[in-house]
Amino acid sequence: MTDIALLIAENLASTAPDRRSDADRFDFQLDILQRGFSPHGLSLDACRWTEPAIDWSAFGAVLVNCAWDYQDDHEKFLRKLDEISELGVPIFNSPEMVRWNIRKTYLRELEKLGVPVIPTLWPEGPTAPDIRDAMAAFGTDDVILKRQVGAGARSQVRFNKDNIPDAGRVLDRPGMIQPFIPSIATEGEYSFLFVDNEFSHALVKRAADGDYRIQASYGGRSHTIEPSPEDLRQASAVLEAIDESPLYARVDMVRGLDGSLMLMELEVIEPDLYVRDSPHIGDRLGRALAKRLA
Question: CA-based, 20 to 30 A from 282: which of 136, 140, 144, 234?
Answer without folding.
Answer: 234
